[in-house]
Structures are given as structure tokens and as C-alpha cells.
Amino acid sequence: MSHAPEAELRRLLDIMAALRDPATGCPWDKLQTFETIAPYTIEEAYEVADAIARQDFTALPDELGDLLFQVVYHTRLAEEDGRFAFADVARRIADKMIRRHPHVFGDAAARDAAAQTTAWEAQKHMERLARAEAGSLAGVPMGLPALTRAAKLTARAGRVGFDWPDAGAVLEKLNEEIGELRAELTEGDPARLADEVGDLLFVLANLARKLDLDPETCLHQANMKFERRFNAMERMIESKQLTLAEMPLEAMEAAWQQVKRIERAGLAKP
Predict the structure, then answer these.
(1) What pTM was estimated for this model as a whole?
(2) How many CA atoms lie within 13 A of 47 on its CB side?
(3) Class of residue 127 by CB neighbours under 10 A (exposed 0-12, middle 13-18, buried 19+)
(4) Closest C-alpha among 137, 140, 205 to residue 167
(5) Which residues are CB-neighbours of 124 under 8 A, at least 6 positions away?
(6) For 91-146, how does the pLDDT look when each residue is reduced to its tens digit (9 = 90+)?
């Protein structure tokens, strides 16, 4: 049964207020702050992305609701402090969308997707200047996942010409960084190793960007592939009444390769 969105949103806001009520609210909710809730906000965003990746549109409304509740939670905290309210948040994003889409809500000429991206970035640049954020790299959030932030930082640098010409040049840089990491292995200094591994990850993030790939998505898919193959390897070994702990590395590697062959054979079928 469909319900009016305004009524359901009002109900959610009232529930949040009740949870934070100093006299009758939930003891846990009354103790929360921006800082303690922020990790849940990030977690809920990832759960939305996970439901989308799994094409689980039965779960997606619940996950989107959890994420919306995080917005409501933060705005309730702000309202209690006299900073802003939910209406301010909604108004600001609505105003921003209108401002950034003059070809829809104003008199600007229609744009294709590429032109819109260019105009969008120009508008964001003007907004950063209005906030007195100086520098080409200003405004890239510190809280982004590290691989995503690396790609965004270098995309910004690329707009002013500080960029590799193509993916091949990035691969050459990657080989250079691998050599530097290998040179540090002998000494084994943790700080130097961390620095070199960081450089390597940074270059990999930029390789993904130059290939028009999202580095976080690439790593997420690699994680899922590893998990899928590891679980299949474990099931294969357990079917022989053995455990991984009992198997030498060479036997596990052989099982791993067998899992890969089976998986690739399955993918190759029409």
C-alpha cells in the first residue's frame, strides 16, 4: 500500500525526536553524538551499495531507509544544538540541484552527458571559491575511502594538466614503485615499507582512473572473487574429509588452481 511521502517522513522525524527525548527517550540514543553516529552512516552507505551490487531490490528499500535514518539522526542532533534542522538540509540540496542544472531548471542550453559533467565541475569549483576553499585539490573529503580519494585527487590535478598521458605511462610508474618497494624489503623498516606500499596503492588507484574504472569497485570485486574461490576450495577439501589446517600449502594451491579452472570453464559455457 502506498503512503504519502510527506506523511511518512514526518513520522520518521517524530520517531527520531522521541528516541532522543531527554525524559522518555532511548538510553542508547540519548548518548549518541555526531562522532559516534558517523561510523554507522558510512556502514549504512556501504550496505546500500552492497544491495545494489547483489541486485537485491527486496532488501534495497530497507537499506535506503537505514541510510535515510542516518540523515535524520544527524539533523536531529544539529537541531538540538540549534545549528540546523532537516528542512535546512532538504532546502540546501534542492537549491544546489537547481543551481547545478540550469539546462533543466533555467535558460541554459541543453547539454550532453560530457558537457554536463564539465559544467557540473565548474559549478562545484565556484562553490568552493565561495566557501573560500583555495587550491585545485580543495574540497576532496578526507573521509572518503583511500582509493577513491586517491582517484579524485589526481583527477583534480589532471584538470590543470598534472597527469600521466595514458594508462601505459601509469604502468611504467607502477613498475618503478614496485622496484622501490623491493629495494626496501632488505632493510625492512616499517615506516619506509608503509610509504612505498602507499605509493604503490596510489598509483594503482590512478591506473584504474585512467582506465575509466572505479578503484573501490575493482577491489570490491576482487574481494568477492577471492571469497568465492576460497570458499569453493574449502568445500572441495572438506569433501575429502580433510580440513585446511591439515593441508600443506602446495595442496591448497593445487585445489585453488582447480577451483579457478572449474570457474573459468563455467564462464566459458555459452
Answers:
(1) 0.66
(2) 17
(3) middle
(4) 205
(5) 100, 139
(6) 999 999 998 888 888 877 666 777 777 776 777 667 766 666 678 888 888 888 99
